[in-house]
Amino acid sequence: MKVRRRELAKRVGGRGAKIATAAVAAVTAGSIGLQVQSALTGSVAGASTPTVKAHATAVAGCAGPNGAGYWQVSAQGGVFTNGAAGFYGSAGGTELNKPIVGMAPSVDGRGYWLVASDGGVFSYGDAPFEGSTGAIHLNKPIVGIVPTMDGQGYWMVGSDGGVFAFGDASFYGSLGAITLNKPIVGMATTRDGRGYWLVAADGGVFAFGDAPFYGSLGGTTLNEPIVAIAPARNGNGYVLAASDGGVFTFGASTFYGSAGALSLNKPVVAVAGTFLGNGYTLGASDGGIFTYGDSTFCGAAGTASLSSPIVGLAFF
Questions:
Q1: CA of 235: how far to CAs of 135, 136, 197, 229, 246, in Å?
Q2: Tens digit of each residue's pLDDT (9 = 90 or more) over 277-316
Q3: CATH code of the domain made up of 10-315
Q4: Sheet containing 100-105: order of strands
């Protein structure tokens, strides 16, 4: 079953935000081409000391138009820029129907999307608005957004595994009709954009389209739940992050360390890979940033007085 609906997007004056009240949604609960395994495969490593910085002093590698950088977003829609990542607007002064739950960068890093738990989409800079589920009744809340390779579309995923495709994003299947042991918490796309992975809070991984299955934590007892997934740069693996900072790598993804043995002030909520694929970054709900491998620390929202927790991280 494919549902398509179009309505006008409403603009928020003065902030460059395009708030979607509804748009083209591809919703399917039909044939599901998923691969699920509960056995633990891949390299699951323990904890090690990360490159953690408690201040917002950016290093030289973060400066300039070609420097490194990243954005952090809060539940109220506030956007925090670090390093070379530019500020293109936020929903911080907007009365939201539901909290922001995720963020994704545009293809050239000159814009970004924010998504709320009701599926409302806010686009800034050169990130095009391609639709939302803001006016559609959802069975479960949206938990994440992932852009297509050319930036002309995106997928959203709900906690029940429902997948919504917009713009040039193709629908490859969902878990909307499946009873899950634990809710879906994240999504990652393959390198060519012809498939994606969903990850559940228990570490179960579900592969669709051309996304290979490299293993999961579905049969493993975890200290804390999984909260996010990031793909390997070459598309041949993925990294899972737990709320206690534990990191689990599969396929071609390399383990560079974790915060699993640290006493964190607040839980980890996001993970993102690096441009070269030789590291990753963890983001905590208090704005703390933990860098590993070739990931560069460019500042953190943890030094600011936050009115709501950080819920997402996106790289420039």
A1: 34, 32, 11, 13, 21
A2: 889 999 999 999 999 999 999 999 876 778 999 999 998 8
A3: 2.120.10.30
A4: 10-12, 17-19, 121-125, 111-116, 100-105
CA-to-CA distance for 10 and 231, rounded, in angstroms?
33
HSE of 112 in the Cβ direction (CA atoms, 13 Å)?
Answer: 28
Give per-residue pLDDT as tens, 144-168. Answer: 999 999 999 999 999 999 999 999 9
Which letter does DSSP use for residue 87 in this model? P
List the structure tokens of 24. Answer: 């083209």
If pLDDT is split at 50, 70 and 90, which confidence band does 135 have?
Answer: confident
DSSP 187-244: EEE-TTSSEEEEEETT--EEEEETPPP--B-TTS--SS-EEEEEE-TTSSEEEEEETT
How many whole angstroms separate alpha carbon 181 and alpha carbon 161?
11
- C-beta of residue 104 within 8 angstroms of C-beta of residue 80: no
Residue 274 or 226, more confident: 226
| Entry field: residues in the chain | 316
- Asked if 245 and 65 touch (Cβ cutoff 8 Å), the reply is no
Mean pLDDT of the chain: 82
Largest separation between any pair of C-alpha atoms in the chain: 52
Place of tokens 């938990």: 143
Domain positions in the chain are: 10-315
At 130 the pLDDT is 98
CB atoms within 10 A of CB 54: 10
Q: What is the pTM of this model?
A: 0.81
The stretch 263-290 carries a mean pLDDT of 93
CA atoms within 13 A on the CB side of 214: 25
